[in-house]
Specification:
Elements (H helix, E strand, L loop, with lengths): L1 E7 L6 E6 L3 E6 L4 E5 L18 E6 L5 E6 L3 E6 L5 E6 L6 E6 L5 E6 L3 E6 L4 E7 L5 E6 L5 E6 L4 E5 L4 E5 L7 E13 L2 E10 L4 E9 L4 E9 L6 E6 L5 E6 L3 E6 L4 E7 L5 E6 L5 E6 L4 E6 L39 H10 L6 H6 L4 H5 L3 H6 L6 H18 L20 E3 L5 E3 H10 L17 E2 L1 H13 L1
Length: 487
Amino acid sequence: MASLICTLQDHQDDVNWCSFSSKLLATCSGDKTLRVYNTRDFSELPFSPLTGHGYGVHCCCFSPCGQFLISCSTDATTMVWSTTTGDIEAVMEHPGRSPVRICALSPDSLHLVSGASDGTLALWDFPSKQLRRTGGVSDTTMVACSFSPCSQIFVTGSTYGDLRLWNLDLNQLHAEKNAHDLGVSCCTFAPSILSGGQLVQFRLASCGQDSHLKIWAVNKFSSGAYQMQLLHTLTAQSAPVLCCSFSSDGQLLISGSVDKSVAVYDTNKAALLHKLNHHKRYVTACCFSASSLLVATGSMDKSVNIWRLEDSCSGHGGKSLPAEDFAQTSSEGKTSARRSKLLVADWSEEDVSEWLVEEGLQGLVDRFKANNMDGTELLRLTKETLASELGIESVGLRGKLLRKVEELRSAAVCSGVPDEFLCPITRELMREPVIAADGYSYEREAIESWINTKNRSSPMTNLPLLTTLLTPNHTLKMAISRWKSSQ
C-alpha cells in the first residue's frame, strides 16, 4: 500500500531532481533554486531556498555523510553547499563553459563527475574540488550518471541512447549502444555488490524516451573486462520514462513518466507493485529515503509529493511514520501581500517599502526611498550594487536581502503566466523578446549574455548558432503587453 502524506509546492518552475540524505530532502528546479527540508516533518530549513545559480538547476545530490549538497546548472557550474549553513563551499566551472546537466558523487566521497550538454565529462577530486581530468563523447548531451557502489566505475547515459561505463581515468570500459531508442533519460546503480567465483556483479537501472525502464547486470570479470546483460524490460508506463531510483536495500525500484504516473516495482521479481497517479504533469524526479520507505516525486507541475510505502510492499522492514507527523509545507502557509502581485517589476516605490516591512527589513526603507527603488530596480539588485550604491556594509544583511529578492524573482514566474511569455534562459517574463538563429525567442539581455559566454551554442538545442543576429519579436512583445493589461 502507498499513501500520499505531504505535498510541497514551493518551487515556481519545473522540479528537475530530488535527493534524500539521512535527515534532509533537497529539491531543485528551473526556477534557479534548491530547497532543503527536514525529513522529520518536511518543514523548510531557515536558509532555504539556496539561490547561487544563475540559471535553472538540473540535478542535486548529497554527500554520503550528509554534510554537503551538490548541484549543477545551465550556468555551467557545479556548486557545493553546506547543509549546516546553506553557504556555498565551492563553485566548479565546467570546462568549455557548457551547461551542466548531471552530477554524481562517488559513495566514498572522493570523486565527483559532472556531465554537460556538449558531451563532455569532468572528473573532480571532491575533497580538494580540483579538476582531475576531462573526457566524454562528442555531438551528444550527457543527461545521466551514476557511480557504482564500489566507487571505482561510473555509468553515463546520453541523448544518443547509449550507456557507457568509465573508470576513474575516464577510460571507457564498455559501451551499450542503443540501450534506449531516442535517448537515455536517467540511470542509477543499485547499492549492493554481488560476487562469486571469477565474477563481480552490479545491478543497474536505466530509463529513456522509448518508454522503457530496464534492469541490467553489469559484470566485471577477473580479467578486468566488463559486460552488460539486460535482465528485465519493464513497460508499465505508456510514455517516455524520465527518472528512476532504487531503494536503499535495492529491493524496490521506482520510475516517473511523461504519462504523469509513478511506478513502483519489486526489483527481484520485476513485478509492478503500485501505479501512483497524483501529479498533473510529467514526473521528472523520484528518489527513496535512505532510512525508511519514503519516496519523493517531483514534477513539471512544480510540486513534490512525499509518499509512504507500507512494509508489506516488499516484505522487509522500513519504518512507517504516521501521516500526522508531516507538515504540509506548501505555499498555503507562506502567503503574503508581496506574492499577490504577479509582476514585481511593476511595483511602485511604496510597494517596495511595504515589502521590506513585511520581510522584517524596515530599517532599509528610508535608504531604498532615497534611491527611488521601485520593483524593476529591486529585481536588478546585486551584492555589488547593495554595497556600492545603497551602502549596505553588513554582509549578513546583504545576503538576507538577496535571498528575499531571489524569492521574488522566482515568485514572479507563477502558474498564470503563459509559458511562451517566459524567457527559456531566465524563466522570467520577457520585456524585450528577440528571435535567435535557433528559432527560439529570448529576453535580449539574457541571450546576449549567453552568446558572450557560451561559445555561441543554442540554449535550447545545444547546437552552434549560425549567426549571432537577434531579431526583435514585436508580435510576442505585443502579446505580452496585452496579457499584462488584462491582469
